[in-house]
Amino acid sequence: MRIRLLVLVVVLLTGCATPVPTPETQITTTPEEASINIDGQDLGTSPVSFLLDFTTNDEYALVAKKEGYFTESKTITSASVTGDPPTLHIQLQASPMWQATTVSPATNEWMSLIVNPEIGDAEIWQRMVDATTKRFPELEEFDYNSGYIKSVLKGKRFDTPRGEFRLRSRFIAAVASEDPLTYKIKLISEWTDKGIQWYPYNRVFVEDSLLIKELIDRFGVR
């Protein structure tokens, strides 16, 4: 009789025991402050905590993003998480294209440049050609009468752990208005990974951005 009561007490105590909750996983990245998304849910920037419950889900889709680094997309399983409390670390790879480029207001957008009226037309054209050919030695089209300049495309190759990437740029300038004399200028910037299709890139080579600064300094009205 005592044995039966003991078994009953054990069963009752076991049935009433509070389940141990699954602890949240600490998600970190190198570098820090990468945007974290899991199964379509934005969690903010790392480090963040999230409940990875592998008793209900076998895997989770994680995406980590940060400017200047390649996006990391990973399938997370229980084997991906280590430690107590559980932790998950994501290493992001730096983009050499990002490191070789910078921002410019003329990147893939027309930028207006009002010309100083004290500079003569011939001098303006000479300054435009000189500044352009310093960074783009070859011109595809140029015409003094219309004030149109279009450089030949130039590019660089970047070897990365994700394969080869290419980045190319071109400078275009044209007269947009005669009074006041205004040029519109643009830096075309594009990238590709397979050389078949090119996509707009929101940054330009550092030396190309210096061309825009020089044009403003040489004959623009500030």
Question: Would you kindly provide a written description of the structure presented here, covering whatever features stand out?
Answer:
There is one protein chain. Helix 3 packs antiparallel against helix 4 (206-219). The radius of gyration is 30 Å and the shape is elongated. 20% of the residues are buried. It has two domains: 22-94, Immunoglobulin-like (Sandwich); 99-219, 2-Layer Sandwich (Alpha-D-Glucose-1,6-Bisphosphate, Chain A, domain 4), CATH 3.30.530. It is of the alpha+beta class and 222 residues long. The longest helix has 15 residues, at 2-16. Strands 9, 10, 11, 12, 13, 14 and 15 form a seven-stranded antiparallel β-sheet that branches. 22% of the residues lie in helices and 40% in strands.
Task: Summarize, please.
By secondary structure, this protein is of the alpha+beta class. The strands form 4 sheets. Strands 9, 10, 11, 12, 13, 14 and 15 form a 7-stranded antiparallel beta sheet that branches.
